[in-house]
Specification:
Elements lengths: L1 E3 L6 E2 L10 E6 L5 E7 L1 E2 L1 H9 L8 E4 L13 E5 L11 E2 L1 H8 L3
Antiparallel strand pairs: 1-6, 2-3, 3-4, 4-7, 5-6, 7-8
Length: about 110
């Protein structure tokens, strides 16, 4: 499964391991929303470089892929989760409900 970034420009946090989900990419939108994509076995070199440089990436940039079973899961898939800011990643008390973060991922 190929994984692409949000429908809006984003920056990448410098975190690529997500507890029991294996490889992860964390995209931060202009409004502070952070979306995590997990169970990734391949992460784009462009994404890694952008995390180091702070470069903003365009909407829909290829993040990597979820090809195998990684972490605590029963089959290949991409895990997505949202938070209300990059400092709150891994804090369940700041997790956003699915309908909130999915709406923030879309263009417009």
């Amino acid at each position: 499964m190929q994984v692409f970034g949000p429908g809006k420009p984003f920056k990448v946090l410098d975190k690529f391991v997500w507890m029991q989900t294996g490889g992860g990419v964390f995209c931060t939108l202009e409004d502070g929303t952070t979306i995590g994509f997990g169970h990734m076995g391949e992460i784009s070199h462009r994404v890694w470089k952008a995390a180091k440089s702070g470069e903003e990436l365009p909407a829909g940039t290829w993040l990597g892929s979820c090809k195998t079973v990684i972490g605590v899961t029963t089959g290949p898939h991409c895990h997505m989760q949202g938070w209300d800011g990059p400092k709150n990643v891994f804090s369940n008390s700041h997790a956003l409900k699915r309908e909130v973060f999915l709406a923030r991922l879309k263009k417009g």
